[in-house]
């Protein structure tokens, strides 16, 4: 791929690319230009790392020497056995349709998901995708075949019904259907039952999955720039409120900071890699930051 100048990857430019697959390609090219080392692993039979034993693991892979030294069970993993198996879970609820600029939160989320699928598939890894609100609306299981990116894009472009979010039943269902341990990336604004989100993450973690939470928020939600009499309308509830936003701004920003701090804290408790993504920032920059950090994580 030919590297793309960062000035072409601002939200306004990305929004002019009508097809999701083309937007993803532009973002991926920017990502590859910004990364010095790929965080993805190719096939090999070399020893990669130890990880803690999980019930159901093959006892033949237990490293008994480590057990003798530490009195804890660890199993050996090899590159060949740990090729990336990526599951992308994208929030398609009504609140994701909010936009203050050229891209809605869902536009950003879908472009991030398609870009990650593109990266995984280009390295020979498997990628799958599901779009959900109060249930899974469309999905495709992880595959490595060449046509898989088209399948992922079709899932992301499935018409959505403007519903609310029910995180816990959706994540519980997905936890039961994902066939083996892999990388699970959830892309959401987290507006809904936060207890359900993090209970679902704990279930996925107990099944051995590596977890990532990409928290997508609009610039309006983060900055609250409103001035003068304003009427706010709910996207997932039939409620409206007319007010002077200047009187609410300090309280809103304090509540927002508490919301973000709680999300970071609970993600850390679930051993989930958390990143805040702003709709106004270049998407390739957001992915470079996320992927570079994961590439530096100790094995």
Report on this model:
By secondary structure, this protein is of the alpha/beta class. It has two domains: 250 residues, von Willebrand factor, type A domain (Rossmann fold); 33 residues, no CATH class. The strands form three sheets. The protein has a six-stranded mixed sheet with strand order 5-4-3-6-7-10, sandwiched between helices. The protein has a two-stranded antiparallel ribbon with strand order 1-2. It has a two-stranded antiparallel ribbon with strand order 8-9. The longest helix is centred in the last third of the chain and has 25 residues.
Compact summary:
This protein has 299 residues and is α/β, with parallel strands linked by helices.
Question: What is the element layout, followed by pairings?
Answer:
Blueprint (H helix, E strand, L loop, with lengths): L10 H5 L4 H15 L12 E6 L11 H7 L3 E5 L6 E7 L13 H18 L3 E7 L3 E8 L4 H9 L10 H11 L5 E6 L5 H13 L3 E8 L1 H5 L6 E4 L6 E4 L1 H25 L2 E7 L4 H14 L3
Major β-sheet annotation? 6 strands, mixed
Question: Which CATH architecture of the largest domain is right?
Answer: 3-Layer(aba) Sandwich
The CATH topology of the largest domain comes to Rossmann fold
Quaternary:
single chain
Labels describing this entry:
299 residues; Rossmann fold; two-stranded antiparallel sheet; 41% helix; disordered N terminus
């Amino acid at each position: 791929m030919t590297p793309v100048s960062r000035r072409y990857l601002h939200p306004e430019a990305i929004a002019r690319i009508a097809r999701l697959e083309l937007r993803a390609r532009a973002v991926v090219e920017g990502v590859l230009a910004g990364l010095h080392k790929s965080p993805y692993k190719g096939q090999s039979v070399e020893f990669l790392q130890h990880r803690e034993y999980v019930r159901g693991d093959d006892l033949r892979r237990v490293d008994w020497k480590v057990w003798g030294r530490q009195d804890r069970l660890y199993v050996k993993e090899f590159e060949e056995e740990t090729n990336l198996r990526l599951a992308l879970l994208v929030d398609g609820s009504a609140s994701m349709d909010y936009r203050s600029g050229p891209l809605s939160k869902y536009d950003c989320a879908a472009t991030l998901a398609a870009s990650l699928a593109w990266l995984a598939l280009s390295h020979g890894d498997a990628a799958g995708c599901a779009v959900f609100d109060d249930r899974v609306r469309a999905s495709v299981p992880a595959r490595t075949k060449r046509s898989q990116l088209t399948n992922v894009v079709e899932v992301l472009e499935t018409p959505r019904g403007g519903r609310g979010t029910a995180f816990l039943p959706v994540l519980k269902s997905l936890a039961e259907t994902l066939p083996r341990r892999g990388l699970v990336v959830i892309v959401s604004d987290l507006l809904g039952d936060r207890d359900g989100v993090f209970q679902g993450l704990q279930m996925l973690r107990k099944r051995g999955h590596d977890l990532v939470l990409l928290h997508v928020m609009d610039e309006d939600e983060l900055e609250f720039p409103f001035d003068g009499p304003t009427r706010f309308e709910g996207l997932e509830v039939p409620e409206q409120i007319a007010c002077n936003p200047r009187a609410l701004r300090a309280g809103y920003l304090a509540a927002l900071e508490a919301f973000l701090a709680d999300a970071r804290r609970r993600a850390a408790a679930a051993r989930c890699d958390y990143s805040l993504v702003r709709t106004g920032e270049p998407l390739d920059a957001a992915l470079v930051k996320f992927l570079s950090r994961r590439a530096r994580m100790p094995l």
